[in-house]
Amino acid sequence: METTEQLETIHRQTTPPRGFAPPASDQELEAGLVEAGLEAAEDEKRGILEAQPDPSAAPPNPGRDTGTTDRGFQERLAATAREATEKGRRAARRARQAAREKKETTAAYFRDRNARQVADDLRAASKEHPLLVFGGLAVAGLALVHLLRK
What we know:
about 0% strand; 4 helices
């Protein structure tokens, strides 16, 4: 996220002075914005590099190779990356578990609803046409006996 100073710098770089003719095309305008963005990125990089301590200026440390960057910084960076990766894995695991639970809950709801609907339909049919329901149950029972004998 850009700071206010960076935004003001970009605004000054991209806003033409009074009396200045606008760019002839969108491509020229886009090129100017890209150039301003590159300059801002270079300024930011320069600021980061200036903020880092110079490893050659530090007194020699027998526990550290003076020709490399700060080993502690690299270890902290690697630890941060591992933590972020693990957090991402845990979040993905929780999301999969929540989806699985939602799917199971939804399936159970529809099973219960379907069972209730069948029971309600049988109850209603038995009141209107008791012999038809009895005959249907008898046929279903005979089919079940036939399947069990095989």
